[in-house]
Design brief:
CATH architecture of the largest domain: Orthogonal Bundle
Number of helices: 20
Number of strands: 5
CATH topology of the largest domain: MetI-like fold
Largest sheet: 3 strands, antiparallel
Strand order of the largest sheet: 2-1-3
Shape: flat
Helix content: 55-70%
Order of helices and strands: HEEHHHHEHHEEHHHHHHHHHHHHH
Strand content: 5-15%
Number of domains: 2
Distance between the termini: 37 Å
Structural class: mainly alpha
């Protein structure tokens, strides 16, 4: 108990020392010596070397260790403390390994130019000496002590069984946790930080506070203000158009296949097949089908309408999305329908219930959790729409079908205003979180105990 609390305090000490520790770099060019210093938090956002990716792994692992120790999970706390210690130690070794450090070169080159070195080229810098502040080694020691004090009791059979029981689940999910931290949490942190900066993807981000958000939310004469409103409005419009059909269509298909008609396995595979295709393949195929000159749909209906312009364009985007997404939800609904006991339907038939009564009072309550899951997932997925309107309509027709992710990509990659794009992405993420939270609250309140 005491060791767990001490380990938790050492973990907190590691995080505090980490925030105040840093790295130093020095180099000499043409007899001019310059120095630079960077804190580890600033180094994390420099986006320079692969070894920096070990920093979020060390920090997230230590936070998990602190939580485990506070919850009296000594073995789990030891595991995450050890991972944090090893990740931070490995970072200190790997970061100092290159002769010319990519993270320290930009500030050192600026210092050399200010000192009078003209026409500086990277090959002129043959060696950058890397050092760490004493606080960095204190942080490493704190992480090591946190792991040492929580070392599991392996001297007894009971202790070994407890160790295996507590850590076996983490052995199964360790790869997922590693990649989740590296490729989800880390980019999310970079994205949130970039939203508060002025950044062109090439130079170092410049912190500007809430300026991007003020422009997006309050500067009515700004182009980005108009893009946010148009993009968010079109995104919400698409969600309202598509999500009901993303639930109704696959549910109808699952109910139809439940009848076990002849060839039902073939139709199941046929309906699921589109979800295996890439969005590019799906969109280009449907673009061909709706072509005004030689499209199959146009010829079949005998229509001369331009399907890729208002008011028909949203219809095409929704049709393509439903055709592509219905298969995944259909499989989930088939599994849910198979789990409903057949006795319930037979008892309802004896009581004189019709098909509609069975559907309302037996099928829907029996599928409430899969329906809740697919509804939330469908809303989140459709809020992230990008490929369909981009390849079907693009920014044509006065940007009538331009969604927010299209503006985010356009501004970040082509216009190189990544800070503003990141702010748009943060606003979109907050909207998705708010809608998902409200969905879960409403559905849980209506779910029977």
């Amino acid at each position: 108990m005491v060791r767990s609390r001490t380990s938790a305090l050492l973990g907190i000490l590691f995080l505090l020392l980490f925030c105040f520790s840093g790295v130093t770099g020095s180099t000499t060019v043409k007899e001019i010596q310059v120095h630079t210093e960077m804190t580890f938090p600033a180094l994390f956002f420099s986006l320079s070397t692969a070894s920096i990716l070990l920093i979020p792994l060390a920090v997230v692992s230590m936070i998990a260790a602190i939580i485990a120790h506070l919850c009296k999970q000594r073995n789990v706390g030891f595991l995450f403390s050890l991972v944090s210690f090893l990740a931070f130690a490995l970072f200190l070794i790997l970061f100092a390994a290159p002769k010319v450090n990519d993270a320290l070169y930009p500030p050192l080159s600026s210092a050399l130019k200010e000192s009078g070195v003209k026409k500086l080229r990277k090959r002129d810098v043959s060696l950058i000496l890397v050092g760490y502040s004493p606080v960095a080694f204190l942080a490493l020691a704190a992480a090591g002590l946190a792991a040492f004090l929580s070392f599991p009791q392996l001297g007894t059979e009971k202790g070994r069984r407890s160790f295996r029981r507590d850590l076996l689940p983490y052995a199964y999910i360790a790869p997922q946790l590693f990649f989740f931290t590296l490729f989800f949490i880390t980019p999310a942190l970079y994205g949130i930080y970039a939203a508060f900066t002025k950044w062109d993807l090439f130079n170092e981000p410049v912190f500007i506070g809430l300026q991007n958000f003020r422009t997006l939310l309050f500067d009515a004469g700004n182009t980005y203000y108009k893009q946010l409103r148009n993009g968010l409005f079109n995104t919400v419009k698409f969600v309202l158009y598509s999500v009901p059909f993303c639930i109704i269509v696959p549910l109808s298909l699952a109910l139809a296949l439940k009848t076990r008609c002849r060839g039902h396995r073939f139709f199941q595979a046929l309906y699921y097949f589109p979800s295996l295709l890439s969005i590019t393949t799906v969109t280009l195929s449907w673009r061909y089908m709706f072509n005004a000159q030689y499209g199959v749909v146009t010829k079949f209906l005998g229509s001369e309408a331009n399907w890729f312009a208002p008011p028909h364009s949203w219809f095409v985007v929704v049709i393509v999305t439903i055709w592509w997404c219905a298969g995944s939800n259909m499989v989930i609904y088939q599994s849910a329908l198979a789990s409903i006991p057949q006795d319930h339907y037979e008892a309802a038939s004896v009581d004189g219930a019709g098909p509609l009564d069975k559907f309302i009072h037996i099928t829907i309550p029996g599928m409430i959790y899969p329906l809740t899951y697919t509804f939330v997932i469908s809303v989140v997925a459709q809020f992230n729409i990008y490929g369909q309107p981009l390849m079907l309509t693009g920014f044509s027709n006065n940007e009538a079908n331009a969604v927010l992710l299209m503006y985010i990509q356009e501004n970040a990659v082509k216009k190189q205003v990544a800070g503003m794009s990141a702010a748009m992405a943060v606003i979109l993420g907050l909207c998705i979180m708010l809608v998902s939270f409200l969905q879960m609250r409403v559905m849980r309140s209506n779910t029977p105990d």
